[in-house]
């Protein structure tokens, strides 16, 4: 039996998908690529420089968190860490934690995860 030795609550699942990012500090938009995810976070790569602790909005195409693959899902997240990567396309890798709203849901763009009466 193998032991799970990472410092995260859940195992990573490899999943590549295009992302759109809005930096809430600067109001700028950028492109990125999700590389893997877990229950409450994800790892993505981007050329944008985002600070640790920054809050962002993520638009995920074909989101693994959703049942509907035809919709771009939107989530609020906080950057936990940043590192330089040796990638063909991107300069930085980021760990991000999905932030729950007041109803303990992470989803922010409507659908079954939103409050019935805002």
Short description, anyone?
The protein is mainly β. Helix content is 0%, strand content 44%.
Explained architecture:
- β2 and β3 (41-46) form a beta hairpin.
- The protein is built from no helices and six strands.
- It starts with 12 loop residues before the first strand and ends in a 20-residue tail after the last strand.
- The protein has strands at residues 13-23, 29-38, 41-46, 55-60, 73-84, 92-98.
- The chain is 0% helix and 44% strand.
- By secondary structure, it is an all-beta fold.
- It has a six-stranded antiparallel β-barrel with strand order 1-2-3-6-5-4.
As a percent range, the share of helical residues equals: under 10%
- Write down the secondary-structure element order: EEEEEE
Which residues form runs of ≥5 with pLDDT under 50?
A: 1-5, 102-118
Question: What is the helix tally?
Answer: 0
Main β-sheet, in a few words? 6 strands, antiparallel, barrel
- Side by side, the strands of the main sheet go 1-2-3-6-5-4
- Quote the distance from N terminus to C terminus: 46 Å
Rg from C-alpha positions? 14 Å
Amount of beta strand: 35-45%
């Amino acid at each position: 039996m193998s032991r799970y030795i990472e410092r995260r609550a859940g195992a990573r699942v490899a999943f590549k998908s295009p992302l759109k990012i809005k930096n809430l500090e600067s109001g700028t938009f950028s492109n990125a690529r999700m590389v893997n995810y877990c229950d409450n976070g994800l790892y993505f790569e981007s050329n944008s420089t985002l600070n640790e602790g920054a809050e962002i909005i993520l638009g995920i195409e074909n989101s693994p968190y959703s049942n509907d693959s035809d919709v771009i899902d939107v989530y609020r997240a906080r950057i936990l860490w940043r590192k330089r990567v040796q990638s063909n396309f991107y300069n930085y890798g980021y760990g991000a934690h999905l932030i729950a709203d007041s109803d303990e849901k992470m989803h922010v763009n409507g659908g079954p995860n939103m409050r019935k009466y805002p």
